[in-house]
Amino acid sequence: MIKNSKKLSSNDGLIIPKHIGVIMDGNGRWAKKRLLPRKFGHREGAKTFKKIALAGKAMGVEFMTFYAFSTENWKRPKDEVDAIMKLFEDYLDDVSSFEKENIRLIFIGDRSALSENLQKKMKHAEEISKDFDSMTVILAVNYGGQSEICRSVREIARKVKNNELQADDIDERLIEENLDTKEIPPVDLIIRPSGEMRLSNFLIWQSAYAEYYFTDILWPDFKEKDLADAIKSFSERSRRFGGV
Ligand code: FPP
């Protein structure tokens, strides 16, 4: 993980977070309010995802991670899970959109449980976008922070067993180097809409020094202005990273 979260760019006097994490919550409630099936909320949520990623890019955010499907979300009804997976596939089929925007796409999470077809599309999207450099969008799919840390530790344990490493070599850097986010800087700001105030296993290692922004707006209703408000709030905070 790159240790550069203090190096933030500035935009109209605002301090722009280098890396924003977004928990896209409230799709189900948005649909329920309209007496629609939950999957319609996810469909609107997918549109908001595209809009807010572009808004982040326009404001100079370099990395945005979106929590799209957690390791716990498999507990949902099958038709809802299928609808979310279909949204991922549809998005990846339209490669030209992130090609046009010069956006690099990366996936984090355990892919092994996803369909082969989806895994193939994810890999393809990562490959074709690897040199796109206007911003990096990270999609967390079948992602859980605890699961990610376990996978990192398991990898390190294998190296210790093979005498490639000693137990005393294990430090924060080594754990970070084996996380899915190894090439991505720590999170500066976590945004969670829909009135919930918890992290829900999202980027738990990477957000050790993150600022948090909560709003009651449901994710499908989240607008560019709401992102700007979150960044403004971040900009006004005093971050000391444990110092004084
Ligand atoms: C949480 O809201 C949302 C999810 C579990 C799914 C998020 C997925 C998307 C927004 C689609 C993403 C698509 C692409 C292409 C990236 P919830 O369903 O728990 O809402 P609720 O708390 O109101 O029930």
List keywords for this structure.
8 strands, 244 residues, disordered N terminus, Undecaprenyl pyrophosphate synthetase, single chain, 17% strand, 6-stranded parallel β-sheet, binds farnesyl diphosphate, two-stranded antiparallel sheet, 8 helices, alpha/beta, 41% helix
Summed up, what is this model?
With 244 residues, the chain is α/β, with parallel strands linked by helices. The protein is built from eight helices and eight strands; from the N terminus they run E-E-E-H-H-E-H-H-E-H-E-H-H-E-E-H.
Describe the structure.
The protein is an alpha/beta fold and 244 residues long. The protein has one domain (14-144, 186-235): Undecaprenyl pyrophosphate synthetase. The protein is built from eight helices and eight strands, in the order E-E-E-H-H-E-H-H-E-H-E-H-H-E-E-H. It has a six-stranded parallel beta sheet with strand order 5-6-4-3-7-8, with helices on both faces. The two termini are 24 Å apart. It binds farnesyl diphosphate (FPP). Farnesyl diphosphate binds next to helix 1, helix 2 and helix 3.
